[in-house]
Structures are given as structure tokens and as C-alpha cells.
Amino acid sequence: MLTRWENGRAEIDRLIAQGRLSKVAANRDLADSYLQAARSHVLSATVLSGSDPEGAFQLAYDAARKALAAILVNQGLRAGGQGAHLTIYEAVRAQLDPPKGKEIRLFDWMRRLRNSTEYPDTGDKTADVDDVSDAIPVARSLIELAEGVLDVMPVY
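== HEPN domain-containing protein ==
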């Protein structure tokens, strides 16, 4: 078993030094509960996709975010404050890209679209049924990614 995760360590240390990421007690039970909630969100998003695409997209996004947050809380890391969702993305991407960058980078697309849907300005694209169709598989892949690394990545 690994005792120290080296990929992205300098970026994680930078995020901690900036106060964007905090060290907390590692919590596998909480990570597992995040993943269970993420699975439920994906199921709900699937049901709502035709009748409420914005709500369904939000659920798919929350599923993806919770999957990435599960990785961090399992390591004893937590993002907080303004921009916490971006910090979650940056912290996981730093540690797992490569080899999982393609899947992780799709979260940033979801994050940006979620923001423009939640806080629209004139002319901003908001989530539609096609976006939900794209987002649900991304959320599923990030849940699978998290499930695959929780037993491998040690406490930070």
C-alpha cells in the first residue's frame, strides 16, 4: 500500500497554503455516503431529464461533484469557501491527471454550465436536455473513478 501520494503534491500543498483546501480527519464512511448520494442523484437526473432538464443537470452535476469530493474527504482534504467547487476539481485533477484527465476535465464543463444555468446573464447558455444526456454518463464515470481510487490513495 502507498504511504504517500506524490502526483499533484505541489498543487495540493499550494491549495492548502492558500486556504482553499483544508486538512481534516480522513473519513471513508463520509466518502462512501457521498458516493451513495451521487448514485441517487444520477438516478433522479435520469428520471427528470425530459421534464426538468435544468434540475436534472443540477443533480448530475451534484453527483459528479460529490464523487470528486469523496476522493478528497477519504484523503483527509476538504475544499471550502468561495470557489470550493473549482478547488475540488483542481485538487482531484492535480492528483489524477494523468491518467484520468479526460474524465476529470469534463467536470469543469459541467461546473461552468451549472454556473451559467444557476446564475444566468443575458446570452449565457443554460442546461438543456442534450446537456443532461451528456452529463449523466460523465457523472457515472466520475463515480466509478472515485470507487476505483478510494482504496488506493492514502491519507494526505
